Amino acid sequence: MMLVTVMAALVAAPGLAWDPAEGDVPWQPEEIALFELVDLVNGTFYDLMNISINATTKDIKREYKEQAKVLHPDKNPDTEEEFKLLAAVYNVLKDDKQRAMYHRVLEEGLPVWRMPAFYDRQVQVVRHIGLLEGIITLLILATFIQYGMGWAHYLEQRFLASKPKQKKEKKAKKNDNNNKEEAKEEDEFGHLKPSVYDTLPFQVVELAKMAPELPEYVRGIWAERQQRKAEEAAAEEEEKTKREEKEARRVQRKKVTSEES
User: Fold this and answer.
1) At 138, is the pLDDT very low, low, confident or very high (cuts 50, 70, 90)?
2) How many domains is the chain partitioned into structurally?
3) Which structural domain, as residue segments, surrounds residue 102?
4) Which of 84, 89, 167, 206 minimizes the number of CB atoms within 10 Å of its CB?
5) Which is it for the CA torsion 181, 183, 184, 190, positive or negative?
6) Domain boundary residue among 86, 105, 127?
7) What CATH number should be reported for the domain holding residue 70?
8) 218 and 102 share one domain
9) Is pLDDT at 25 greater than 90 in this prediction?
10) Of 127, 156, 181, which closes a domain?
């Protein structure tokens, strides 16, 4: 069920980014940002800035400076969020294009199904999958991939593997031999045929069953490693002794040769 929900969200999320009435043209980032801002502001942008809807750019700029003096975080840290909202509204109203877009929203309204909050919640399904849901999804995906790759390997070996050349036989024995060869070939590749019991979930279960034996297994590996290191050290020591003996014999021969001279 969880996987179906994620798949549905993946399919549905792109569809929430544009208005079907607009054709295949998606909403632009600035339009989506405007919708989100409209959703945040309680009332109109003009109410927030205490100006009329017919205010000029000069009026908007003057009012913004007056309010910014009061709400600026440097003077009042508690009004930081209000200042950010004021700045965002100001940036919309001072730009003719964005202001025209906002007026269209005022006239036509913001469709409920296209509300930014709703749109964000739909996308969050894809963006923020929980840890447990993510692990389960990856487990299911890995299981299907593993099972599919097992079948691919089996079919490749079963039908595409090179076969040894055989001498031609008489027609009378051909049919009988074909049946025997097919049975033999089936037995030859039978161990490669995948089973659901070879997939990851069953392997995890088997590993869990082996957990009580794991400490003994680890101790065995450690003992084997220590033994191998001891054997390597002994071999190295033996090799060193041989080199020293060889060097001693060489020095002795050189000494004898010098005395004879």
Assistant:
1) confident
2) 2
3) 2-127
4) 167
5) positive
6) 127
7) 1.10.287.110
8) no
9) no
10) 127
- What torsion, rounded to 10 degrees, do the Cα atoms 66, 68, 72, 75 define? 0
Q: Is 72 left (phi over 0), alpha (psi -120 to 50) or beta?
A: beta
Per DSSP, 25 falls in state P
Q: Which residues of 139-176 are buried (b: 16+ CB within 10 A; e: fewer)?
A: eeeebeeebeebeeebeeeeeeeeeeeeeeeeeeeeee
Q: Is 257 helix (H, G, I), strand (E, B) or coil?
A: helix
Residues 122, 127: Cα–Cα separation, whole Å: 9
- Sign (positive/negative) of CA torsion 183, 189, 190, 196? negative
Structure tokens at 24: 């295949």
| Side-chain-side CA neighbours of residue 125 (13 Å) | 18
Q: What CA–CA distance (Å, rounded) separates 32 from 117?
A: 11
* Residue 80 counted as domain residue: yes
pLDDT at 1: 37
